[in-house]
Amino acid sequence: MEKNTETEIKLIIAKKDVKALVASPLVAKKTKKGSHKTVKLVNIYFDTRDLLLHQAGIAYRVRQNGKKYEATVKLGRAEAGGLSARQEYNVAVKNAKPNLSVFAESGLQVDFADILGTAQIEKLFTVRVKRELRLLQITKETVVEMAIDQGFISAGGKKETIDEVELELKDGSLADLLAYTAKIAAEVPVFTESRSKYARGLALLDKLEPEGARPLPVIDWDNDYCEEYKKQFYQYGTAIMEEQNVFADCGKLQTEADRIFLPYFERMQAALYWLQPVMDGSAGMQANLQGALRPLYKLRDTKTLLRRWKSLFKLADGRLGEDKVTRLLENRLEDIGDEIQLQVMRGTYSGIIFSLWAAMEGAGWKAEEYLQAGQLLQVRVKDILEKIEDAMNREKEAETEKAEAIFTGKLASAKKGKKIPLKEPGYATVTRFGKEFYYLTMANESSKLTDLSKESRKKLEKLGEAMRELFAVNSLGKSVPSELLKSNTVLSARQSGYLLGDLAAEQLMARKTVNKAFAKWLKTVKM
Predict the structure, then answer these.
(1) Contact by Cβ (8 Å): 254, 377
(2) Pairing mode of beta strands 5-12, 37-47
(3) Which of 166, 182, 404, 480 is 20 to 30 A away from residue 525, measured at CA?
(4) Whole-model pTM?
């Protein structure tokens, strides 16, 4: 760890779950002998009336612990989903009066005179907590300090309670800390608190401007791939955990979970696909993601199926009798929404994110010093194109052999004088390599693919659109509830048959569109 850098994870855990956590082997068997203690702390935060220190990225406090006082300056917060890393400087002082000159010999390189000018430091707010501390030896190399804080913030005549668990990395690796937090999430439901006590105090004073929605990361293709994809993992994971805090507090969002969470999980899944050859453990991380993705896909497809059915039923204009399908699909939507809500309330998403971050930090990254993010994408695209070319060559050989067998009469099923049509070119390849084509079209949207001509990229874009339509209708077919397929009345069977027939017809059309788009694209690719 870098000197003077504080790395910690801040968690919100219900009081009843804190007791269960402390009693569990995760804490009881990891606590270092003699490290468990309880202290009462009073933190006083200071700044100018116009928050000049805050504007410079500085938090300044004086902490009272019994008869001892300590002044602290924290700089440059780097934050992701409750995980924060920032420089911290501590100096013992005689009392709680503000005095920034005490940091002159601490190694802190900040010109306070330049920042403050003639402005005066004044008290902002006070934080009082009872802190239960223990050191945990979570692995042979890694020591973590667990702090359980219970208390309140007093600011401008307002109060806000504090119930937090902080895990601060004292020695060892960030990967171990993240993996340990994932184990906690599997033991008790946890949520993250991205705001520091300082930020919460400023909010009580109405001095903290809302950040608004965080922009999702844009890849710098010229930067090394390791740094760029780590940035994505942290920002997508942070977005998921911040959204789940709102989701958990609102009982009306269950059926909106796919819209809220799916884009972030899918982006993480895509990142893992591109990293497969260069990062150890990516396959395991992909498998971990499926626990969240499967119910979200079910929710999305069932909503689409319900909209489709309502449109079909309206077109039937009463010829299908009383609607037997809508309520069934609505009930299914509620069940899936409740399943996702339960996942969130149990801390499943937190566990998945912390596990992914731990795997990412502990993974072996290959050629990270030499490979830019854009170069990695080009290499992976080339691999996909070679795989498709190899499959196409094998398919052509098989079709040629079949044609020769028909011509020579060696094919037992061939009937004299009857033409046996061969499969449409490339259909088997498109079906077999659907995932590869999906990511190839994604790459085509985000970066210039040097292995493809301008015309080929245009045709690939059309193929991508056709394949998305095919995948969507195929997924709808798989999401039809089993109750609908096992209808025990004539009316229900008729309505389910109407829906399934419509899906089958669209699937056939989508397949033909894909085949045509594939054939056109194939002509632009040298294979």
Answers:
(1) no
(2) unpaired
(3) 404
(4) 0.79
* CB half-sphere exposure, 50, CA atoms < 13 A: 8
CA–CA separation, 51 and 38 (whole Å): 33
Q: Which residues of 235-265 are buried (b: 16+ CB within 10 A; e: fewer)?
A: bbbbbbbbbbbebbeeeebbbebbebbbebb
Of 11, 20, 8, nearest to 350 (Cα)?
11
Q: Give the Cα separation of 332 and 481 in Å (integer).
A: 8
Helix (H/G/I), strand (E/B), else coil: 295: helix
Residues 152 and 22: their CA atoms lie apart, in Å, by 22
Q: Is 334 helix (H, G, I), strand (E, B) or coil?
A: helix
Neighbouring C-beta atoms of residue 166, cutoff 10 Å = 19
Q: Report residue 86: phi and psi, to 5°.
A: -155, 155
Q: Taking Cα atoms as reference points, which of 76, 79, 42, 78 lies closest to residue 61? A: 42
Contacts of 105 (CB under 8 A, 6+ apart): none
Which tokens belong to 49? 């009336």
Chain segment 437-455, per-residue pLDDT in tens? 889 888 888 887 888 888 9
Other Cβ atoms closer than 10 A to 157: 7
Residue keyed to tokens 């220190």: 53
